[in-house]
Amino acid sequence: MTGEKKQGINGMDLQTRMEKYNELGKPGPHHELLARMAGTWSTRTLSWMEPGGPTMESTGVSEQKMILDGRFLQQDFSGEMMGDKFIGIGVTGFDNHTRKFVSTWMDSMSTAIMYFEGEADAGGKTITQTSEFDDPFRGPMKWRSVTRIVDDHTHLFEMFGTDKSGKEERMMEITYTRKP
């Protein structure tokens, strides 16, 4: 048996599988898109807790950096929400296997981890992702986030929610402005 390749999963030997994993693990153009968002950002957040309710405004700072050799963008956010301190951590990447952008979000208002996935438009300036979340007050909801890269110094994040009524509502808008 010397010199023969041992067949494994789906008839693929270990060396061939490892080569495929290595290829899928290489950062590419989608990761370069995320890298454009690395840096320190001032934020202005508008949020709405209920349809037709008052607009709440707050400010914050977002530190964003590429991690794991350019594979993921990590966001560390600090600011305020409804007069209280608010901190959050997000990680966004592009899965070369599924061909989708994937994100997680955790913050100081919850013990849940939200998971989003979606795609970018053909021009690579807008990333749209979706998630499902069981809201403690409104029940199961579908969430849609849209990140628009306006230019290298500005991007806009919007969050929309759809509850069991089926009507989508804008919940939040964050304008990110790069700090010098």
Write structural notes for this entry:
The protein is mainly beta. The protein has a single domain, classed as Lipocalin (Beta Barrel). Helices cover 10% and strands 56% of the residues. The protein has a ten-stranded antiparallel β-barrel. The termini are far apart. The relative contact order is 0.15. The model has no long low-confidence stretch (mean pLDDT 91).
What's the short story on this structure?
The protein has 180 residues and is mainly β. The chain has helices at residues 14-24, 29-35, and strands spanning 39-47, 56-67, 72-81, 84-95, 100-107, 114-120, 126-135, 139-151, 154-162, 168-178.
Give keywords:
180 residues; mainly beta; Lipocalin; 10-stranded antiparallel β-barrel; 10 strands; 10% helix; 56% strand
The structure class reads mainly beta
Task: Write down the CATH class.
Answer: Mainly Beta
- Beginning-to-end CA distance, first to last residue: 63 Å
Widest β-sheet, arrangement of strands? 1-2-3-4-5-6-7-8-9-10
**Mean pLDDT across every amino acid position:** 91
Write the layout of secondary structure elements.
Layout: H1 14-24, H2 29-35, E1 39-47, E2 56-67, E3 72-81, E4 84-95, E5 100-107, E6 114-120, E7 126-135, E8 139-151, E9 154-162, E10 168-178
Antiparallel strand pairs: 1-2, 1-10, 2-3, 3-4, 4-5, 5-6, 6-7, 7-8, 8-9, 9-10
